[in-house]
Amino acid sequence: MSLRSSVAAGVGHLSYSVLHGIFNRGSSLPGLVALKLDPDILYHYKDRYDFVIVGGTNGKTTATALAVQTLKQKYPDVLYNPTGSNMKRGIATIFVTAPKPKKKGLAVLEVDEANIVRIVKYFKPKAFVLTNLFRDQLDRYSELYATWDRMLEGVRMAPKATIIANADDPIFNSVDLPNPRIWYGFNDQPMGDLEAPSNTDGVVCPKCHHIIHYGFITYGGLGAYFCPNCGHKRPKLDYEVTTVERMTSADSVVKFDGNEFKIPVGGAYNIYNALAAYSLARFMGVNSSSIKNAFVESPEIFGRQEKVQIGDKEMVIIMVKNQIGVDTVLDMIKTDKEPFSFAFLLTALPADGEDTSWIWDCNFETLKGHNIPYYLVGAANYKDAATRFKFGGFKGVNVEPDPAKLIDRIKEIPTKRMYVVTCYTAMRQLRKALAEQKLIDGGME
Amino acid sequence: MAKYQLQLAHLYGNLLNTYGDLGNIMALKYYGQLLDTDVQSRVVSVEDEFSADDYDLIVLGAGQKFEQSIAREDIDSKRDELHRYIEGGKPMLAVGEGYQLLGQSYINQRNEKVAGDKLLSHRSELPTDGEPVQGELVIKSLLGTNMHGHENHDLVTFLGNGEKALGTVIEGVGNNRDDDTEGAVYKNTFCTNMHTVLDRNGELAKKMLLVALANKYPDADLTVQQNVKIESPY
């Protein structure tokens, strides 16, 4: 390491200890400081670690944390970016603040789609893990194919890296690449002939632009796709879900390649996250039973859901950031066999996405067949949310503009449990209030 | 069952499907009930037959540029019938990329200028400063009401011969940064940059429904329908 970058790394380390001590939120500042001193500091870590880059719209954080848990069985030094800080300075932070590995370490990095190219510039990963691509915040920059093109720019700089990708997402098989490929997906259902619902993203065959069909659909536009026009189809799976034995709002029991795994939270999307981690771990030489243990040992890794006891009521907070996120959460909570209450909190600050038109594409109406005696919509954009539910035919929906007041409002629900499906800003507001009332530990992350 | 029945074509509803246009259709169905009218919606997409006589309402929504380019490849095959529909004074809502498709030209995802379907006279271009437009938009509409919505578009549009603006911009950008217009109206085709426009602006939904009812049921007495008051849904 050159003197300049040693100094930069040292200063980064210092600023982290200082800031961490004083403010307890030094998330990406040390990296920022180190990058100011040496913009190419990442270059100096390229030989100390093997690298894996995890990219995609949803599930990056969970899949990364889970993969790390499994890979710790094999690598004594595994670094990752645990706070979801997936930009360059967040990544610089974890290197400058980590102790020097005794032998070659492993870094598993969750990287924002547009930043892959900026990171791959410094080191060539052994593998990319690609989870899925959905429309996220509805700014024009993040159109699906534009995002994919930006990811590809990074992937093309590392033609030897193995691409471990979700085979059920048609977009990952839309271009030929020189890289070795490993595909994971679901293979637990009989094949029929289906089309995705008309409001699904990317329903078009990436090769011939006809509407794509599916043998089965797991959620959104993910599944065993095939094109009736040109014959393009899902590639052969290397790692697969062979059976879903149980799927509830609390957990799933599945078989990967015939071996049983317990996944300690609900939701098909968490099965995908677990399968992504499993595929990477298998690729890196971790055996199946070690992976099994890793899943059960760390339930807190899964998902952004949090359970809070408020008197005799339980609040389950689940953060969402887009339409597909809402729909997967709805699918999960519908497996709850007890009656429950449902709240949807809508905010539209830049961190949430300012265009709220996505709420009209969510399948809230599928809640109607379930025993949900109490609905509430709220937060700053409650008017749009209330209109959404009104036009959707829901009657008697409660309204609460202030997320903090949910702590009182939950006392009026006729069920034991309330699911609060919330955008980022409203979640911060609610968690702040919960922390002030000592219902959860402080800390904003 | 309601007294009146209307058929709605959700044109390219499985392609131009990103910006909540199901919300526009839900609004038409909701206000339809207030007007004693059932609205049946069907997606009409690539390679589907489209006849102007089969439909009383059209929604052509907003979406991503890739999907817009696929709709563009197909829409010529429906052009004659769409022309007949529009010139016949039947009501259509076109939003964002759908609005662009109907015009003379627009810019595709490779920044190339391509011909629109030339059913209407406007054209869409890259803004001279390159800045996409996003934010809240308020206009004084030609219905006499103020309309509110969220605009989110990377092209700016200039109206052509025979088109009126849907309204004058009070707050936000609208069609472009030069002339204070927002949207386009030709006969009963309503174009706008506002996503889910009908959800916040029931007056426009009512207008489209009344036109559709008058077209389909020329002898009906629609006084009750005309007198229905549109209140803010929330």
Give structural notes.
The complex is a heterodimer of chains A (445) and B (234). Chain A is α/β, with parallel strands linked by helices. Chain A has two domains: 3-301, Mur-like, catalytic domain (UDP-N-acetylmuramoyl-L-alanine:D-glutamate ligase); 305-435, Protein-Tyrosine Phosphatase, Chain A. Chain A has twelve helices and 18 strands. Chain A is globular and about 65 Å long. Chain A starts with a helix and ends in a 9-residue tail after the last helix. In chain B, 54% of the residues are buried. In chain B, the strands form four sheets. In chain B, strands 2-1-3-4-14-13 form a six-stranded mixed sheet. In chain B, strands 12-11-8-9-15 form a five-stranded antiparallel sheet, with no helix packed on it. The mean pLDDT of chain B is 96. Chain B has a single domain, classed as Class I glutamine amidotransferase (GATase) domain (Rossmann fold, 3-Layer(aba) Sandwich). Chain B is an alpha/beta fold and 234 residues long. The interface between A and B is large, with 37 and 38 residues.
First-last Cα distance of chain B: 26 Å
How would you sum up the major sheet of chain B? 6 strands, mixed
Radius of gyration of chain B equals: 17 Å
Unreliable residue runs of chain A: 19-25
How are the strands ordered across the major sheet of chain A?
Answer: 2-3-1-4-5-6-10-11-12
Beta-strand residue fraction of chain B: 25-35%
Average pLDDT reading of chain B? 96
How would you classify the quaternary structure? heterodimer
Structural class of chain B: alpha/beta
- Extended strand count of chain A: 18
The CATH superfamily of the largest domain in chain A appears as Mur-like, catalytic domain
Terminus-to-terminus distance of chain A: 33 Å
Strands of chain B, count: 15
Strand order of the largest sheet of chain B: 2-1-3-4-14-13
Radius of gyration of chain A: 22 Å
Largest sheet of chain A: 9 strands, mixed
CATH third-level topology of the largest domain in chain A = UDP-N-acetylmuramoyl-L-alanine:D-glutamate ligase
Look at the structure and give the mean pLDDT of chain A.
Answer: 88
Identify the CATH class of chain B. Alpha Beta
Superfamily at the CATH H level of chain B? Class I glutamine amidotransferase (GATase) domain
Subunit structure (chain A): Forms a heterodimer with GatD.
EC number (chain A): 6.3.5.13
Keywords (chain A): ATP-binding, Cell shape, Cell wall biogenesis/degradation, Ligase, Metal-binding, Nucleotide-binding, Peptidoglycan synthesis, Zinc
GO molecular function (chain A): acid-amino acid ligase activity; ATP binding; carbon-nitrogen ligase activity on lipid II; zinc ion binding
